[in-house]
Amino acid sequence: MQNNARLPLIVAAGGTGGDLFPVLAIVEHLSRMLAPHAVLEPVFVGNQSRIEGRIIPARGYRFVPIPMRGYYGARSVRTYSLAWRLPISIARVAHILRTVQPRVALLAGTYVSLPVAIAARWANVPIVLVEINAIPGKVNRIVARWAERIFVSVPACRDAFPPAVQERVLVVGTPIRPDLRTRIDSHTARGSFGFDPDRPVLLVLGGSLGAQSLNSAVEAIRDRILAAGWQILWQTGANYSPPLNAGIVARPFIEDMASAYAAAELVLSRAGGSTVAELAALGKAAILVPYPHAANREQHHNAQVLAQAGGAVVIEDASLSVELWPVLEQLLGDDLRRHAMANAARTLGVHDATERAAGSLATLLVGTQ
Question: Going by DSSP bridges, is the β-strand pair 104-107/201-205 parallel, antiparallel, or unpaired?
Fold first, then answer.
């Protein structure tokens, strides 16, 4: 490889933090791995109004917005806008490919990945997929046939792809943000949020977009949680503002997740693939409430991976208002069980997933020179 060789890369990831951050972790580790012999030049494609439209420019990367949105079902008026959103997005990506001439397209399998995959296929740009869930999502099932390589989190995900592509599937684990590996004392972490350092914290995560049912269920029992001697660190999403009192810190989005996890003795969360991987890597006991409307029930599969290992309790969204307090009450008062769950979760953690994915991607990038 020549000194300071340029390695352009097009990246499509976003919609939620759970889809964005694992791919961002790969890109940032890859950039460090290639330096000083080569300069990685990633161009991110996504939706301006979603999390990638805020996070990517803030990190100093080039960001190109496209109008692509997801599939909302045949009865939704929003779905029919794909008739113009998809072709416009493909055309915009095709222009980017002509000007940037990327060596590889790195795709997270979200809806913004589809037009990038189509344009990359037409332009003969090698495609690498990242699937963070325990089973592949719709877009990755469609694009898999075109992919040069597919990074997955668990062996069961590889087995869920068609046999014709399984030889291109690599089980690497789920890349997690490097800052989450920072060792932070729990007392220091609690103090950073203004909590009493000596009282345990329940971390509530509805995902970067929030979760209405989770927010409502927690609000209904928050006084009981506080009366049990616990404090609540609550990621609410942008459209929900709970009434606050002492012992509760609520934020639309928690930027410092390393401190949030370090502060937490127990986590109540949706079951996105990225979140489940973080719980495993950090060894955190959890109550998981899978998102009920995913067509492939990805979050149910993610949650079961952790639950079957003994690291989580799973509650269905439909029964959350009835079942949450009995489950939570038992766990809040049982230190031994929480610690056993944390240890069980830790056995599933893949600590070098980012390095594995970045290393494989590096060989493909260098090989295209």
Answer: unpaired
3-state helix, strand, coil in the chain (%, to 5): 50, 15, 35
Domain shared by 118 and 22, yes or no: yes
Q: Are 126 and 368 in contact, with CB atoms under 8 Å apart?
A: yes
Residue 297: DSSP 8-state: -
Residue 127, CA distances (Å) to 8, 186, 237 in order: 13, 41, 33
Q: Does residue 270 come out as left (phi exceeding 0), alpha (psi in the -120 to 50 range) or beta?
A: beta
Tell me the per-residue pLDDT of 86-112, one tens digit each, with 9 for 90 and over.
Answer: 999 999 999 999 999 999 999 997 889
Q: How many residues does the chain have?
A: 369
Same domain, yes or no, for 220 and 298?
Answer: yes
**Identity (one letter) of the amino acid at 172?**
V
DSSP letter (8 states) at residue 296: T
Are residues 99 and 335 in contact, defined by beta-carbon separation less than 8 angstroms? no
Dist. CA 279–CA 286, nearest whole Å: 8
Edge to edge, the sheet with strand 62-65 lists 62-65, 38-46, 5-12, 104-107, 127-131, 149-152, 169-171
Q: Which letter does DSSP use for residue 153 in this model? A: S
Q: Could you identify the residue written with the tokens 């991607």?
A: 361
Domain that residue 238 falls in: 179-346
Residues 230 and 361 in one domain: no
Structural domain count of the chain: 2
**CATH number of the domain enclosing 124:** 3.40.50.2000
- Regarding whether 250 and 160 lie in a shared domain, the answer is no
| Residue 110 and residue 197 in one domain | no
Residue 270 amino acid letter? R
Say whether 140 sits in a helix, a strand or coil: helix
Tokens of 38: 């080569």
SS3 30: helix
> How does pLDDT run across 326-364, given as a tens digit for each residue?
999 999 999 999 999 999 999 998 889 999 999 999 999
* Burial annotation 17-54 (CB, 10 A radius, 16+ → b, else e): bbbbbbbbbbbbbbbeebeeebebbbbbbbbeebbbbe
Alpha carbon distance 340, 132 (integer Å): 25
Looking at the structure, tell me whether residues 359 and 331 fall in a common domain: no
